[in-house]
Amino acid sequence: MIQKDFRLEWRQRAALNGMLLYVGSTVFVCYLSFSLRGGELPVPAWNALFWIILLFTAVNAVAKGFLQESRGRLLYYYTLVRPQAVILAKIAYNSLLLLGLALVGFGVYALVLGNPVQDSPLFVANVALGALGFATTLTLVSGIAAKATNSSTLMAVLGFPVMVPMLLLLIKVSKNALDGLELEASRSALLTLLALNLIVVAVSYLLFPFLWRS
Question: What is the pTM of this model?
């Protein structure tokens, strides 16, 4: 299943190029808004803009996971593999895709708008946990929304409230990394983020078979 998703993505390279273009153009617009006016981007605004860009990149990248699958193709999968294999493969693929986009986005963002991060390993680890958290949550939400008629709207309605607690923790840890605080100040938040990711994967594994049969 993971190989199938990678092959489809490679055949539809325009979609991947579009996501990279989205990240680059958004960063460039931020650069035009702040740097060309002679003002330096404050650290809290730098942090907030980065997570806004990553959040909407995640929605655009992961939303098509189930929404692009036709009902006939899903029926074909139903005869071949178990539903747990489908959801785990989707989560693994979306996690790798979003992790790559997040690291590329951070590199471009830091190159264009400066890098005020004082604890880079902590910030990169937080970005990785955020990418994995967005991928797991949005994959399950995409599977639910694909069963509805107005799936795109339902995806946004279900996805954003679920990700708000995760986003608050991510912003807190990244703020600590920007300020150069000790790891102990972020340890509980990092463990909570890891636990949330594992809970979402477990819930997806247990509940997706019921959604698959509907």
Answer: 0.84
